């Protein structure tokens, strides 16, 4: 709440997620544990109140937050909804370590009749951390805003903060992995597929925050539906890709270096793979580029690592094992004169038993991705 007080830029982006679009330019106030003394009002006390005024328009919201493994109690939210309805407060915002598909889809049940006048939105602490990591790259932030945000994020990444990360795919994950190996398979309307995609989208966002935290780089989450696709369009494309190809994908772009990281989970082969795509150094010809890249691996032991070069005027070269490439780099550039359009560094892991596990799948995915990102930093690719 102090950060929202201090930073109009961060406040504006966060309140957009809560349904209010003028958070950056409004007159803003916040209050901790507001109390109301009236026999006509419920005897409850939210954790916080935020209030916005812009011209003749007023907007406000109650905040209720839980730490550690304490869940949001629906009956408590209902009490706040009743209080909000009597005071013309627009929204109740809940925050806990419980994950939701989106701020509007609650991880707890509240009757629809209660939401007719007052809306409710929910955020997991890990989602807020991801949001703040992305905001840290905004060019609109002032020096003081950046310093306070940095301190806030430093705490949010400490174990003592009590923030739980996304660490397991939805309950039906093993069933969908098994179904991908059968003749019947599954389709876009199979029960549970939306939950699988939402789980993947949550992990995709969570992994983005971890990449940013690890690299301190300006990283954006891309999507093959296009940069302008909204949440519903992305969900539709992800669901179709999963049903048609049995794969889940995630794209990350490092803005400064223009390096792209493409991650893919293949349910049919139970393989997690990624490709780091980078442009070759400028003013080098084919052979010089290949030798330059080979020099990055003097004594590397990277199982299942491959490389591929995208040569001009030819189809993308099939990936070759890193060991083979290092033994004869000149063969890769043979008959080539100009530098390749891009270089792809590819890694993968395949473990059927761990892939089918809701938790171990996430562990392997994050270990492979973050290890590769650290390697890329060491090699100064990003």
Structure characterization notes:
By secondary structure, this protein is of the alpha+beta class. Helices cover 38% and strands 20% of the residues. The chain has 13 helices and twelve strands. It has helices at 2-6, 8-17, 74-87, 125-135, 143-156, 173-179, 193-215, 231-245, 286-294, 322-327, 329-332, 352-356, 358-378; strands at residues 27-32, 48-54, 57-65, 91-96, 119-124, 219-222, 247-254, 259-266, 271-278, 306-310, 320-321, 342-350. Strands 6-7-8-9-12-10-11 form a seven-stranded antiparallel sheet. A five-stranded mixed sheet has the order 1-2-3-4-5. The mean pLDDT is 92.
Distance N to C terminus: 34 Å
CATH C-level name of the largest domain: Alpha Beta
Write the H/E string, N to C.
Answer: HHEEEHEEHHHHEHEEEHEEHHEHH
- Main sheet summary: 7 strands, antiparallel
Number of domains: 2
The amount of helix comes to 25-40%
As a whole number of angstroms, the C-alpha radius of gyration is 24 Å
Q: Runs with pLDDT <50, length 5+? A: none
What is the spatial order of strands in the main beta sheet?
6-7-8-9-12-10-11
Helix vs. strand class: alpha+beta
Strand residue content: 15-25%
- State the helix count: 13
The overall pLDDT average reads 92
